[in-house]
Every structure is written in C-alpha cells, then in structure tokens.
Specification:
The complex is a heterodimer of chains A (335) and B (402). By secondary structure, chain A is α+β, with helices and mostly antiparallel strands. Chain A has eight helices and 15 strands. In chain A, strand 12 and strand 13 form a beta hairpin. In chain A, helix 2 crosses helix 7. The longest helix of chain A is centred in the middle third of the chain and has 16 residues. Chain B folds into three domains: 190 residues, ABC-type transport auxiliary lipoprotein component (Rossmann fold), CATH 3.40.50; 80 residues, Immunoglobulin-like; 87 residues, Immunoglobulin-like. Chain B is built from eight helices and 20 strands. In chain B, the strands form four sheets. In chain B, strands 7-8-11-10-9-12-13 form a seven-stranded antiparallel sheet. A six-stranded mixed sheet of chain B has the order 1-6-5-4-2-3. In chain B, a hairpin with a 5-residue loop joins strand 12 and strand 13. The longest helix of chain B is centred in the first third of the chain and has 27 residues. Chain B is elongated, with a radius of gyration of 33 Å. The termini of chain B are far apart. Classes of the chains: A alpha+beta (335), B alpha+beta (402). The interface between A and B is large, with 62 and 63 residues. Strand 13 of chain A pairs antiparallel with strand 11 of chain B.
Chain lengths: 335, 402
C-alpha cells in the first residue's frame, strides 16, 4: 500500500477492516454423530462477562423509513437464528418450546413473572449433567452469549457490531465439544463509497437501521454454526457421494409367506452405513458389509405384520450424511 | 385496424402515469403481509401443530420448497409452537391434503394443521443489480379444516449497484453475495420470519399444562433370540410414539405391535456388529425423546464362527451335531446345543471371494472333506425345520477367517 495515495490507502484499509470478522473456533467432536442437544436460553453479556440488556429504545428505531424496533431482545433474536441454523446441521436439537417448558417446570423461571421469564443466572450456573439427566434427555448443552450488539454513529460512518460466544458442552464428560468466539461488523458511510455529498450524510444514518445489524447477526450465526455442518468440511467437497451399482431382493414373486424372510443385497461404494426400507413398514433395516462394497441384510417380519405391494428401497449413507438410494420398484413385496 | 397517433399518444401518456403508480401500489402491498383471520381479537393459536406435506406438483424446484418449509418449521418452533416432526406427518398422510388428519389429532394430539403454498420463488440477477422474490401463503386450519388464519406474503430483496446507488462498494458486495445459493436461504429465512411473526402466539399455559402430551416414558427394552437366526428387540413405553434402534449411525424403526409395545426382528447378521453401542429411543411426534442403552446379543446361539475347525482338505464343525437328535452337551462343549441341532452342512464355493457362490456339496455329518474346491468355501448349517445358519467362511490355504 506504499504507492497508494494516502486517502485511497485509508479507504482501502477501512474497507478491509470493515469486512474482516474474527471467528475463533475449537471443535473437539465429530459433528456427523447425531448427538441430541438442548439449546439453553441465550444471554447478553457486557465486556466483563456480566449479564446485561441492550437499551432497546434507540431514537432511530422510532424514525419511520429509517429503522424499526426489533420485536425481540438481541439474545432471543440470535438464539432463534442459531436454532434455525442448527436445524441444517446433523445435530438433533430438542424443540425450543420443550426446553422452555421443562426448564420452567424444573424451577428455572423468575418467580412471579407473567409470562414466565427465564432466570438466566440460574440457567448458566447449572451443570450440563444436571440439565441432561434431571431436566431433559440430551447428550450435550449449548450455551450462547451475545457479547456485542452495538450500532455506533460517527457522522460520516455508522458501524454495526455483533459478537457471539457459543459453547457446546458434553453432559457425560463435561468436555467442551465446540466453542466459537465470533465478532463481526458492517458499516455504511464513507468506507462504502458514497456517490455524492447527500449520500455522505444520509448513508451513515441509514446504516443505523435495525435491518443491517440483524442481517449482520444472520451472517455471524451462519459462520459460527458452519463448522458443525458437514458441508463445510474439506473432505465433503473432495469426496464423491455414495453410489449403488446394483441391488436386489430374493423374492421372485414378491409374495412372502408366513415365516419367510426377505434377503436384500446391494453392491456399491464400500465402508458406508447401509440400510433398506420395506415401504413404511420397516425403515432403516441394517445391511451388513460382508466384503468391501457387498452388503447383505434380512427383513424378518413380525407375526403382526401385514402389508401389500410395498417397495424396497436400499440406501447408502456416508460419514457426512449424504444418502444415495435405489428403489427396487419392479418387484413390490406383499406379506 | 386504424392507427390513430394522437389517441395512441394519449393512451401512452396515461399508461406512463399509471405504471409507476401501479408499481408503487404493488410494492406497497408487497411490503407487509396480508393477514386473514377468523380468530377473535386477542385469542391465541393452538400450540401443537402439524405442517401438512408439501405439494411438489408446482413449477418450483423441490429443494426450494423444502428450504422454505424447513425455515417455516424452525420459525414456528422459535415462536414456541410445538411442531410435529415431518417424517411422522409424512408417514401418516397419504397426500398433501392429508385425509388422515383425524388420526394425527386422536393419536398424536395435534390441535391444528398448517399448510404452506408457495406461488413463486425466484432469483433474478442482472448486470447492475438483482431482484429476488418469494411469494406464498401460510394457513392454519382447525381439526375440522376451517381456516383459522392465513398469512399471504411476498418477500422481495433487491440490491446491487442499481439499488445501492449511494454506496457503490456496498452495491458490489451485495451483487457478489447474491450470486450463490445462499441468497435463496436468506430469502426463505426472512420470508418465514415475517410470516410467522404475524401469527398470534400459541396458547400460553402453565409449565405443567405445556408439558401435557409431551410426557414420554420408556419403561423397558429387551433383545432376545426368537429363532437361531433372528432376534427381536422390543421396547415398552408411551403409546403412539416412535421407537427405534440406533446402531452406530443407523436408525431402524420398531413397529408398534400393540399400544405402547414396539418391536422389530433383526437378522443374526446384525449381531455380528455387536460391540458397536446400541441404543433404543422412544420419541414423541413433537420431538422429545428418551434413550436407553441396550446390549445386543453377541452372536447367534447357533453361530458357527468359532466352531469351524479346518485343515487344507477337511472341515469339522465343533459343538454342532449333525444328523443326530441330541439333547445332551457334547464333550468339550460348554453350551447346550440342542437348539442348534443341525440336519446337514451345505458347502458353497466360488472362483473368487467376490462370488457368486454356488452350492458345491452337502454333508450329513459334522465333518467332511473339502479337497477339490475351486476357490474359497462358505459353509451353512441347516438346522431342524430347514432353518439355515449364516454362512461362515472356511479358512483355507488361500483365505483367512474374516
């Protein structure tokens, strides 16, 4: 940047600074494992880590056409974003209403509040073991803290900043399975290239719009949850999805008699998790890999089973959750 | 047809004036969701709802429909609705209209049904800007099919240089960001948020009442051999729930054979994977679950794996008498093998380990010669009643035991 004129260098530096968020993640488990997690209520904390609340009555949010009030607290808003993002990952997330109901039932509500508010200090003080053994049925607990939620105005520049700390703790070992410290900002004004003097004045004001900080929060959450998604893993991109070259079952007529079993075989990519479905009667019947790529399994009907013309579907699933299926629709099965 | 230039100009002029007005009106109407409600003011919606299956017959890619549905479900859950799991709704409903709603209501305590219809979902990139649009309607119906509330909304998003004329760099950044599929995700997310925000809150009750219908109890789980080649896993717990057996990352459903009793029979093949942790799970339609670890039978009572003794030209099956009716423990065998009484041994061979294996020889005794086999040999013991054991590979000079 030595040869650049000073104003241009300043603008470029500000642009670079404005774009670069910090995301410090540490992951210590295989996110493909379908562990069951409880997302506890999020809290907003100040720089010293104490629970706090943002001043939700900014003047700018009452100026029509510029901004509008956020209908939730930043902590609730970010928690909702995290829950929505987690739905895309392989983790099994306990429904939020259930977590709330069980926590309130277990005495984590603020006494006398109506509607019942959660006592966050109590929630953050309890151990994951206690949550997962006494309150909910889960393998791990996700704690979330909004460490920063700021909209700052500097005359020719407005900067929105969002900070988030997520911590997933195992209920069995108390080990931190995943932790991320995220902080990112977005700006409007001089650094985003105003095209006139009026824009130089107006754009920073528009930059205080709640929509900008909520969009930023969405990006921060997306990047914070990304390491938990298999799609972001380099192996996912470099390896092909599972394939099935051939599959068959051993019922030539499709009619199974009492006491019969149905043998299903498949030939495809090796070392996968293989299973087959018999319509909706039996789903996920395991196939065992007897030789590399050669899978065999048996459907054993129960005495109470009875079904007509259902399709057998063979599936191979890889470690990243990608599933390839093949329907044996030419010969449907009845029992 | 007579062309009248003056009249045309007059029409054109009025059109030119009308067009921006119409566009403005369209934009204004698209800005806020249109809510049609039959609910009395201030009333709440039922908390336990099911989103009925998607109608994929529309001219919109299935993935985009699923994306919006996923976001709607997430958002409903975020707003404290208790939404029935999609796979369960799919398994009950035979069509998007779901004529089996009464079953969802009676068995799974669903109090209201949601339908989502998507009219359009498009991303339009042009050189200097972009315009994305998602239009659809979310309706909530009572158990009788009467619409309680419907939210009709068009979520649009525009950006790029044309729409960020005051912030040139921001225009470039937003244009670049819109080139990927993440733009669909963002639009779907905002659509879901805007639509669900319009719904009245679900019934606010006390914590105890909220938990009603969510309680789940897993009383017992067992795994027992029911024949020499299969075992049955059974679980007892809350009726009308969903039970499954998890082995590693595979999940097998257990069928509800009577209210509160869930079973499935597994081939002895699966027993060979013993050692991997197995868990049974009972899950309610609304997603709460209880799990318990379960020890799967280590191996079939008639498994031959450890009973095959072989030399280059001979095999013998130890502790599995063949061709005799026995009710005693064979010398040197610690287990009672009455159940594993075998009628004959069947030997299969192939030119290579990849197969295909064909029947090569039968033997009516516990030992036989194996000279002359063209390749690897697998042996199957056929028990009384013709029940075959699982095939076992015989270690020969060219192969080793798996």
């Amino acid at each position: 940047m030595k040869n650049l004129p000073l104003p241009l260098a300043l603008v470029v530096s500000l642009l670079l600074v404005g774009c670069a968020g910090t995301y410090k993640a540490n992951i210590a488990f295989n996110p493909s494992e379908p562990i069951r997690i409880a997302v506890l209520p999020f809290a907003q904390v100040d720089s010293s880590g104490q629970l706090t609340r943002t001043d939700e009555n900014l003047l700018i949010d009452n100026v029509a056409l510029v901004s509008s009030q956020l209908k939730q607290t930043p902590a609730q808003f970010v928690q909702n974003l995290v829950q929505s993002e987690l739905a895309q990952a392989s983790l099994d997330v306990i429904p939020p209403a259930l977590v709330a109901a069980e926590l309130i039932h277990a005495g984590f509500g603020v006494a006398g509040s109506n509607p019942v508010e959660m006592d966050l200090s109590k929630v953050f003080a309890v151990s994951p073991q206690e949550i997962c053994s006494k309150v909910l049925s889960c393998d791990a607990v996700l704690y979330g803290k909004v460490t920063s939620w700021d909209r700052s105005y500097y005359g020719i520049q407005a900067v929105a900043t969002v900070g988030l700390n997520l911590k997933l703790v195992s209920a069995r070992t108390n080990k931190v399975l995943y932790e991320i410290d995220s902080r990112d900002s977005d700006s409007r004004g001089i650094t985003k290239g105003p095209t006139g003097f009026s824009n130089l004045v107006l754009e920073p004001l528009k930059g205080l719009d709640n929509e900008i900080i909520t969009d930023l929060a969405r990006n921060v959450v997306e990047k914070s949850i990304e390491p938990l998604s298999n799609r972001s893993r380099p192996e996912f991109l470099s390896s092909p999805a599972p394939f099935i070259l051939a599959s068959a079952h051993d019922s030539p007529s499709g009619r199974m008699k009492k006491g019969d079993k149905l043998i299903v075989v498949a030939f495809g990519s090796p070392a996968q998790t293989a299973s087959f479905d018999v319509g909706t009667v039996a789903q996920g019947v395991p196939l065992v890999e007897r030789a590399p790529g050669h899978y065999i399994g048996e459907f054993v009907p129960l005495p109470t089973d009875s079904f007509k013309e259902v399709t057998v579907t063979v599936s191979l699933r890889d470690q990243f959750g990608r599933v390839t299926s093949q329907k044996l629709s030419k010969m449907k099965i009845s029992y | 047809m007579n062309f009248r230039p003056l009249q045309f100009l007059r029409t054109l002029r009025s059109d030119c004036l009308l067009a921006p007005l119409v566009a403005l009106l369209c934009f204004a109407s698209a800005c806020s969701p249109k809510v049609t409600s039959r609910l009395p003011a201030g009333s709440s919606l039922p908390a336990h709802i099911a989103l009925l299956p998607a109608d994929y017959s529309l001219d919109i890619p299935r993935e985009r429909i699923d994306l919006v549905r996923g976001e709607i479900v997430s958002e409903l859950r975020n707003h404290n609705f208790i939404v029935a799991e999609e796979k369960i709704v799919k398994s009950v409903c035979s069509s998007p209209a779901c004529p089996e709603r009464a079953r969802l209501r009676s068995q799974y305590l669903v109090e209201a049904f949601a339908t989502l219809s998507i009219n359009s979902f498009s991303k339009n990139n042009f050189v200097a800007g972009y315009y994305n649009q998602l239009s659809g309607t979310l309706s909530l119906l009572d158990p009788h099919g009467t619409e309680l509330i419907a939210v009709d909304y068009t979520q649009s998003e525009k950006g790029g240089l044309l729409f960020n004329s005051g912030q040139i760099f921001q225009g470039i950044i937003s244009q670049v960001n819109n080139s990927g599929d993440a733009a669909y995700q963002e639009l779907a997310s905002e659509f879901a948020k805007s639509v669900v925000e319009q719904l009245p809150a679900p019934v606010q009750t006390t914590a105890m009442a909220q938990r009603e219908g969510l309680e789940l109890a897993l009383q017992s789980a067992t795994a027992e051999w029911n024949s020499p080649t299969s075992y049955t896993v059974c679980l007892k717990g809350t009726p009308h729930s969903f039970a499954s057996l998890l082995i590693g990352s595979n999940q097998t459903t257990l069928r509800e054979t009577s209210p509160g009793s869930y079973c499935s029979a597994f081939s002895a093949l699966v027993a060979s994977t013993a050692g991997t942790p197995a868990t049974v799970e009972l899950r309610s339609v609304f997603g709460n679950s209880e799990r318990r670890e379960l020890t799967l039978p280590a191996r079939s009572p008639c498994a031959l794996e450890e009973r095959v003794q072989s030399s280059p030209d001979h095999i013998a099956i130890r502790c599995a008498l063949v061709g005799q009716d026995v009710s005693r423990v064979q010398a040197g065998c610690s287990e009672t093998i009455k159940a594993c009484k075998a009628e004959k041994l069947v030997l299969y061979t192939a030119t290579s380990e990849a197969g295909p294996f064909e029947k090569w020889r039968e033997a009516a005794s516990s030992s036989t010669t194996i000279t002359g086999a063209p390749g690897p040999i697998h042996v199957v013991a056929v028990g009384s009643g013709g029940i075959p054991s699982l095939p076992v590979q015989i270690p020969t000079q060219n192969t080793s035991t798996r």
